[in-house]
Design goal:
It contains one helix and five strands, in the order βββββα. By secondary structure, it is mainly beta. The longest helix is centred in the C-terminal third of the chain and has 11 residues. The radius of gyration is 12 Å and the shape is globular.
Amino acid sequence: MKTNEIITVLNENGEKVDLELIEAIKLDGNQYVIVGPKDSDEAYAYKSVMVNGETEYLSIGQGEEFKKVLQKFSEH
């Protein structure tokens, strides 16, 4: 369900990367986005947080939080 919306996220190295929004997910009171490179089957999960009134997307790595988000995404 790609939306063609491009968002800027911070990757594991703290670098800004533009990725295509695939889906937004709410889980345990937090907002997450599933994003991936345009024209690719790859996908990543990022946590949406408000910083100084602006939304920032932070990498959640591949630990327990990532597994929960992935499970929620696969239920769609």
